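Worked example (supplementary).
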Amino acid sequence: MGFASDNGSGVPAAVLDALARANDGAVPGYGDDALSARVTDRLRAVFEAPQAEVRLVPTGSAANALALAVLTPPWGAVWCHRLAHVEVDECGAPEFFTGGAKLSLLDGAHARIDPETLDRALSRAPRSVHQVQPATLSLTTLTECGTAYSAEHLAALAGVAHRHGLGVHLDGARFANALVATGATPAELSWKAGVDVLCLGGTKNGLMAAEAVILFDPARAAEFDLRRKRGGHLLSKHRYLAAQFDAWLEGDLWLDLAARANRAGARLAQGLGAIDGVELRHPVDGNMLFPRWPAEMAEGLRAGGVRFYGGPDPDAPGHETARLVASWNTTDAEIDAALAICRGH
Amino acid sequence: MGFASDNGSGVPAAVLDALARANDGAVPGYGDDALSARVTDRLRAVFEAPQAEVRLVPTGSAANALALAVLTPPWGAVWCHRLAHVEVDECGAPEFFTGGAKLSLLDGAHARIDPETLDRALSRAPRSVHQVQPATLSLTTLTECGTAYSAEHLAALAGVAHRHGLGVHLDGARFANALVATGATPAELSWKAGVDVLCLGGTKNGLMAAEAVILFDPARAAEFDLRRKRGGHLLSKHRYLAAQFDAWLEGDLWLDLAARANRAGARLAQGLGAIDGVELRHPVDGNMLFPRWPAEMAEGLRAGGVRFYGGPDPDAPGHETARLVASWNTTDAEIDAALAICRGH
Amino acid sequence: MGFASDNGSGVPAAVLDALARANDGAVPGYGDDALSARVTDRLRAVFEAPQAEVRLVPTGSAANALALAVLTPPWGAVWCHRLAHVEVDECGAPEFFTGGAKLSLLDGAHARIDPETLDRALSRAPRSVHQVQPATLSLTTLTECGTAYSAEHLAALAGVAHRHGLGVHLDGARFANALVATGATPAELSWKAGVDVLCLGGTKNGLMAAEAVILFDPARAAEFDLRRKRGGHLLSKHRYLAAQFDAWLEGDLWLDLAARANRAGARLAQGLGAIDGVELRHPVDGNMLFPRWPAEMAEGLRAGGVRFYGGPDPDAPGHETARLVASWNTTDAEIDAALAICRGH
Amino acid sequence: MGFASDNGSGVPAAVLDALARANDGAVPGYGDDALSARVTDRLRAVFEAPQAEVRLVPTGSAANALALAVLTPPWGAVWCHRLAHVEVDECGAPEFFTGGAKLSLLDGAHARIDPETLDRALSRAPRSVHQVQPATLSLTTLTECGTAYSAEHLAALAGVAHRHGLGVHLDGARFANALVATGATPAELSWKAGVDVLCLGGTKNGLMAAEAVILFDPARAAEFDLRRKRGGHLLSKHRYLAAQFDAWLEGDLWLDLAARANRAGARLAQGLGAIDGVELRHPVDGNMLFPRWPAEMAEGLRAGGVRFYGGPDPDAPGHETARLVASWNTTDAEIDAALAICRGH
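After joint prediction of all chains, the assembly is encoded as:
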């Protein structure tokens, strides 16, 4: 039973089938193939953005770092939440790809930033030649605490950012889960809200290793292309990236996978919420849960073969905090088995 | 009929099967899975290098750039052939990943470097604080002209490099083809010849997108790991990289694929060599051919649906130069059809 | 009357004289001259550190950034106070010179860090491959709030840092002022307290443009030299940097200059402390003062030709906050004139 | 007797006087002082370029690297002569400041590039996403072989560069010597010839440590300012940089100093040219000479206390090659003494 991450699960059969179908014949490399063009067309349609440029890369860190690099000069600052994946979990990839930009951190409950907090911070940020220059707002949804931004919240944040001259990047590693959580359309949760560059995650939602960067301003694409190649992220047999996305978009499979993961998350949340001694530290909008629970309960789960990230809560002796993530293929039986272990402690 | 590149071909069924087999179950990410461990064991055995560390990445440019970065400080120089892929075809990835090292270029017939040329260049390279410091020798085999280095040749070059205090990187995008061409063992063509870090290419020899970096000195692995993550090249669902290599190594499939490509190259070379007006500019040791031929012959091939890189020879009016690459799945029929077109001009 | 910064004042006559004396004759460049060697000898003696290597550069930002770069890999984190000059006032120079390291920020009253705060932060910092690796502790004394670290406080911080595997950098732009403030010896306030690399500021204490980087571990010097050249900070006519330091160290001029500045700071603090409505936000250990005062008082000073950095306090309407810095050549008359203006409001 | 470099000589008394005059009073830092503004005005007048922006930095490597960085993206190529100072003598500063651009090298007699050579190279340079993109032409005058470009030659080169979409940087470490050598006006040898950014060297022509970067397109200045600060090259006590330039420009002192150095170079060249066994390898247009001479003659000079760079000619046993540079204060007596030693061998 794996709740360590949605990147621990396999892929649906449709993805394997698509790879097999894409395997025939000699086709041009580096994205100049028909399948890659079709994915671009599909994503333009899904996002109601016929001008957008689409680029595929193998990892979310690459997508984020390249996106930030086209928005942020080396002397720029990327403003983001203190818990943002780009700050915490990418070993400095944004700093590397931007040529040494600075990540300026904001606080906010449940990993969400308030527009007022952002506005005050940007208003007070000095901009003389002695300081890095505010360049980019980087948001995430689902956030690192599993919460979703509403389209209105995103739009308010992007509005503040644009007013202060910043571009807006959205880390959408779990964008599909956020769509399902909010009921917003892809356009509403991206360019209509003011997002300039979206990293649309596939890997955490049923693909092997495929992420799409959607540049709503196509003028940024030429630089992106050179940075992607220079970063070693232009795949020669690009068709296999495209095939994954093609299967994912076909018949809205991506939304179906995300809906399944979110439903599993909700079932788990409901079960845990009813157990004495378990506190869910953040609202569960999608497929991620952050319980604080007795250490022996956590140990019991581990002993029962349940995998998740967690450890002692330094501020609450005898307790642990943990992160559990449901996947598209998490079963009710797995959830119920885990809950049964919890209830037994 | 595609002779544009060996990265234009698909993958053998065994690779697709391996992906499907690897798809079951929730497994740890980022390379901490059993399949990844098995690939490391297999490669250690194949290379007779039980201490070596193995790291998988999705592209050859990533493999090369990361390997160069662990060998070369920002103020270092990478010495390589003027035609080296790292110099010509990676949009400055080595400069990016090293933090601004310099590529110092050497000449040599058929993209091979003479040990004497290297020794003279390194002996004359000033090393005061005003100059970048010679740090790394980067070699390629098969070379960019399709030639192979013998194990002895490699060893002589690496000996010169080590004597001058440089580390040795081998770009083995077509290492399997070089093994087949030379009859050397993997160990003889790498660490026994003095190679410190080998980039073992899978993508051009039947994989989807998978390259292995073999660090014969395991002390370099920790830095490599951080650079790989920071470069966005640590795949979360790492099992799919590993599955490709696992299938590739099983039953020496990789050598079989390379042998097929080399045989196709030889057949094509033999055919072209017998056609008036066609000159092969470099010896054909593996699966790459570099003809100079009449422009109308090139046009005829294009008209017949044969794909390859080429264009007018600025130094020989009425002629073109071209690069043709055979793949593991190039058929005799395709070759003969192409030859027939040539003969018709 | 200039209280904007101690870098707004001129230099003592002894420095001009030393430049004139150094002007004769053709001497080797790039630091290979006798005067540069003498400065090294003098600083080794002053710091009781016969093994230390000394390097001169023209600016404090260069000194800090180069020092941090020899201590911190691109994937490293520099831990420092939120108000540190390296974080706030160098336009990302540390990120640039390190190749994209991250500055991790700590809080602490009056710009000083508590050892417990540091220990807790380093204990909780994750160190997997997904995170930048804690590499360096960067401290400043006088701090950006004008306070001094005692030698014991520095030693406690450096002890924590070393225990966690970090190196220790000390930004000593106002190191001489800190020496005077604490009564500690140069050695006690640097290597005896665990400082690995000290940036000893000359410019803010009576020199034109000269800073010394003292590498207590001489093994770091070779890399420093290459980074300094590569950063454009190796002056060809190095004798003029050395001449400044030579005059500064002669007869303890540097300590005399700092003592004068600190006395001026104390006089100003005493005067302001006796004025109703003026609050000194930080203890005045040296030559820097941070008043919060009525806006009309600040305006009155400006109208009277007194220069300083300051502006509206966003949290206290009708008030301003300001920074005043006394210099080696600030006169009692200037101070008293400024105080008289304040008293008039 | 020092012929090692024109950076081995002292400065004229007028420069020392100017520093002393600039020393009075508290003035704003970072270039916001009246003296810095006056230098800008003077240089605009001298160059007939009222729109140009002027920035001062302490070293020539900083000037060049910052200038190249505002012209060249990280994925760009700087085209320059194989012997260019930016390639050979700056420890990779251009690569560092640009974020990893590539220097693409051109041949040409006496360190000068032919327009035809440049045009052919740029015409053949591939520009797909796999290659760094030609961005900047970097020229030097006096060249590293001591030759001068005529204004027409410069204009032809810049014309080719602009036609191919490149910007033009001129390393003018010895620009004053080039002006004297060619008789061209400052404007003719810079923006009228198509130079976009000029690095105007002061240090090698009588200043302590001061170089001016002249940005003929003022739109580049804002980025330059941030890069300068971030590079640690914005001096706080900027008036001392400005004072040097102010004295240098006063009464055309700079041209007088260069004329003296060039006359010394000519006298030395004439003398050496008349000595059997001495070959001058390059035309002597200014103050630099490159003799090939018998090893015993070189040894005799060294024994006689004459300093210069040189060493065995690996291609001519028994001979050495050397570089001799005359300075503004080289005397006829020094020259004649050196020539007497040569004649004695």
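Two points are worth noting when inspecting this output. The first helix of chain A runs from residue 13 to 22. The interface with chain D takes residues 30, 73-75, 99, 129-130, 133, 223, 225-230, 234 of chain A (CB under 8 Å).
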